[in-house]
Amino acid sequence: LLASDGAVRPTIFAEMSALAASTGAINLGQGFPDEDGPAEVLEAARRAIAEGVNQYPPGIGMVVLREAISRHQRRWYGIEPDAATEVLATAGATEALAATLLAYVDAGDEVVAFEPTYDAYGALVARAGGVLRTVPLHWSAEGAGHAWRPDPDELRRAVTDRTRVILVNTPHNPTGAVLDRDVLDLIVELATRHDALIVTDEVYEHLVFDGAHVPIATLPGAWERTISISSGGKTFSTTGWKIGWATGPAALITGVLAVKQYLTFVNGAPFQPAIAAGLDLPDAYFAQAAATLAAKRDLLADGLRSAGFEVSPPQAGYFVIADASPLGFSDADEFCRRLPDLAGVVGVPVLALVHPERRAEYRSLVRFAFCKRHDVLAEASGRLSRLS
Ligand code: PMP
Ligand code: GLN
């Protein structure tokens, strides 16, 4: 986490945002929307501040938010965590991940996660003293169309009695994969056989374009060993508010709360009722948010293809992965550092999210964020066409 001179080593997302800021390039690196989310949600936060919701909320979260999270899970997934004991509000999904891993991973415990791996996972597992074992997602044409999928045998081999947690991320950052039901079933089977916990990061749960998101907690036998994590940041375009949550059986959530009370203690008072208002928005809002983003995905994917990249269109989320090798760039690390000069655009090298030993498969891949205005995506596409 620290560089050899003792300085904080910035995350790849912070580094790439700084590169965009210093060069004036269009920032398609870090994933955050450039437009505000629903007016009702913004207004609810203003109202809460005006009404004096500005002091420490309860550590477990305000009742209004916990009840909205529970209602939301009943409406969309048919499960209803008890708002009093099975729902915990956190400072974004990031704190939920941190508190969960610090609570349940001890020195030497293994955590299995899919690769490419969201950057916080490796850092948090290491802070907890655990060992991250990754299972690669491969771009595969098998099954229902092209998608990023794990090889079931590689997953089987990775999970052993040393595994404390299987850390799932679906929809997946950076590939945009929505894990298939058979993969989720296999995860539950392996976790049960080896008595591991399942921790699932589902922050892109509503931003699905192709396929259906199935929360792993809803599968038979999963609930009692699963901590599910999500956040209002993506669903309501409020990434800076950092309102997230963890849900699961009371005994598991209690352990997460025990750690959370010494991380942030409590968080985000006026934003909690605002995210609650968002979770109660009608179905049409959620459908519209996904449809709007799907159009942006198509715009940027087309632009990247016209510019000469090979593209794997995501099923969900904020990002599209593009292979720069058809343009003659075989090393995405170097390509991304030169991209502001070459084309006035910033992307993230997928290599940054991959174990050094596994670099070959992902070497020339770049992650571009498309959660941006149409004019920004059109301008970026035009600039990228200069590459060929
Ligand atoms: N998990 C994944 C997979 C993410 O993409 C993100 C945000 N980029 C987070 C967690 C963090 O979410 P939050 O901002 O709510 O902490
Ligand atoms: N999750 C966002 C991304 O993947 C960024 C969050 C961060 O910068 N840590 O780009």
UniProtKB/TrEMBL annotation:
Positions of the Aminotransferase class I/classII large domain: 25-349
Pfam families: Aminotran_1_2 (PF00155)
Entry GO MF terms: kynurenine-oxoglutarate transaminase activity; pyridoxal phosphate binding
Cofactor or coenzyme needed: pyridoxal 5'-phosphate
InterPro entries in alphabetical order: Aminotransferase_I/II_large, Kynurenine-oxoglutarate_AT, PyrdxlP-dep_Trfase, PyrdxlP-dep_Trfase_major, PyrdxlP-dep_Trfase_small
Family stated for the protein in its record: Belongs to the class-I pyridoxal-phosphate-dependent aminotransferase family.
Name under which the protein is recorded: Aminotransferase class I/II-fold pyridoxal phosphate-dependent enzyme
